[in-house]
Each structure stands twice: as structure tokens, then as C-alpha cells.
Design a protein that fits this description.
This protein has 211 residues and is α+β, with helices and mostly antiparallel strands. The protein has 6 helices and 6 strands. Keywords: Signal.
């Protein structure tokens, strides 16, 4: 199973894999887990990865980013929505494997692409409430050398009182349509195991290219 080709810009920001998910939360999150804090921690981890630079190994960046990204994103919700009704047909082990494949691929994207630091910095996150007891947090990665700035709009919902990212729009382009369409097409062609195999191969390709 092969994924469709993307532009270089889409590949770069493909690190921000996340799917829109309607969510409601009843518990009130603590200040340490406020939506803007979640995004700030993620931004800090990305800048750290960039400062590690190409002189560091891919594995070092991957392991440094893994806990931060897996904590910031709600990959279980992302996986559920991205597969739609097909999710309910999976066995418990298959669901676990798919979530893991999706998590690893996301971290691999970040580790492979956030490797060069030239004075870039993120703007302070700005939060606003949106329908469905969710929050939208915006932050801009500002170029340090006069290049293009990139704005990220993160949609967060609560999971057991913890704010998690469930969607990201980059410079006005949401990952929702691209990700869901790609997964739906792969499922129709080869089923869940072919899809997971394709995602894992993507992760391996990113790791190989970044070494």
C-alpha cells in the first residue's frame, strides 16, 4: 500500500498529525495542564529538537520528543476519528497497534524535520473557547532569518480532565481532510493491516533519511 504524494511543505508540517474530534470534558484542568500550557510545552520541545541540530542523532531527537508529543496529543481520539466506523470493527490489540503506529509516525516526522535552528522562536500561545467545551490555541513559529513564519492553530479537548490536542491547522490548512482521506483510501485498498504497514514504512523511511 502506498500513500499519496505530498508537497514538501505538506510533508514538513505532516509532523503535526492530528484529526478533528468532537469532544466534551466535564473535569476542570489544572493550571499545569491549561490548553496554552500544553502548546507551550510542545513548542519548547520542538525548539530544543531544533537546537540539537543535525549534529545529534535521529534517535536522540526521537527519544527526546516522544514523551512530549505523546503527552500533548490525544492519539486515541485521533485514531478513532481517522478510521471512522472501521475503528469499531477492530479488535483491542489492533486498536492498540494502530494508535502506536500513528504515534510513532508523528514523532518520527517531528524528529526528522525539526533539526535546524537559526534563531526561530514561537510566539506566546493565544487561547479562545470554541463550541463543544473545547479550546483553540494559536502560536506562530517566527523565522530567525527573514523567512516565512508559520502559524499553528491547535484544537484541544479534555480527556479525563487533561487537555489534549485533537487537531492542528497550519497556515489555514487542516490535517483533517488530508489525513482522513488518505487513511480511508488505504483501508479500502488493503485493510487495517496494510494501512498500519504503510504507516510503519513511512516512519522507517523518515528515520533512514534523517540518519
Amino acid at each position: 500500500m502506498k500513500f499519496s504524494q505530498r508537497t514538501e511543505n505538506q510533508k514538513f508540517w505532516g509532523a503535526c498529525i492530528a484529526i478533528f474530534m468532537l469532544g466534551t470534558g466535564s473535569a476542570v484542568a489544572s493550571t499545569d495542564n491549561a490548553p496554552d500550557t500544553v502548546v507551550t510545552k510542545l513548542n519548547t520541545a520542538l525548539i530544543h529538537s531544533m537546537k540539537m541540530g543535525p549534529s545529534s542523532s535521529y534517535e536522540s531527537r526521537f527519544h527526546a520528543l516522544y514523551p512530549e508529543i505523546s503527552h500533548a496529543y490525544d492519539f486515541s481520539k485521533i485514531a478513532h476519528y481517522s478510521l471512522g466506523t472501521a475503528w469499531d470493527k477492530l479488535s483491542a490489540p489492533e486498536k492498540k497497534q494502530f494508535v502506536q503506529a500513528l504515534t510513532d509516525y508523528s514523532v518520527a516526522n517531528y524528529a526528522a524535520h525539526f533539526t535546524h535552528y537559526a534563531g526561530q522562536k514561537f510566539s506566546s500561545p493565544v487561547s479562545k473557547s470554541v463550541p463543544g467545551h473545547r479550546m483553540m490555541v494559536s502560536s506562530t513559529l517566527k523565522s530567525g532569518n527573514g523567512g516565512k513564519n508559520n502559524t499553528f492553530d491547535y484544537l484541544l479537548s479534555q480527556n479525563h480532565g487533561q487537555w489534549k490536542i485533537v487537531n492542528v491547522t497550519t497556515d489555514g490548512v487542516s490535517n483533517l481532510a488530508m489525513q482522513k482521506a488518505e487513511f480511508t483510501g488505504a483501508l479500502k485498498k488493503g485493510g487495517i493491516h496494510a494501512l498500519m504497514n504503510g504507516i510503519n514504512k513511512r516512519s522507517e523511511k523518515l528515520a533512514h533519511a534523517a540518519r
